[in-house]
Amino acid sequence: MTTQLDIKDFGATGNGVEKDTHAIQQAIDLGAAQGKAVFISKGVYLVGALFLKEGSKLKFEDGATLLGSKDLADYPEIETRVAGVEMPWPAAILNAISANNVEISGNGLIDGQGQHWWDIYCGADKNSGLRVDYDKKGLRWIADYLVKRPRSCLIYEAENIKISDITFERAGFWNLQITYANNVLVRNVKIGDNHGPSTDGIDIDSSTNVRVTECVASCGDDCIVIKSGRDGDGYRVGKISENIEIDNCKIKSGYGITLGSEVSGGLRGIHIHDIEFEDSDCGFRMKSSKERGGFIEDVVVENLHMKNVQFPFSWIMDWHNSYNRKLFENIDQLPEMWQAVALQIPENMQMTKVRNISISNVKATLDPDYKLPARAFDLVAFPEKPMENIRFSQCSIEAKEFGRIVAVNGLQFNDVTVSIAGENDYSNDTFDNR
Question: Which top-level enzyme class is recorded in the Swiss-Prot or TrEMBL entry (predicted)?
Answer without folding.
Answer: hydrolase
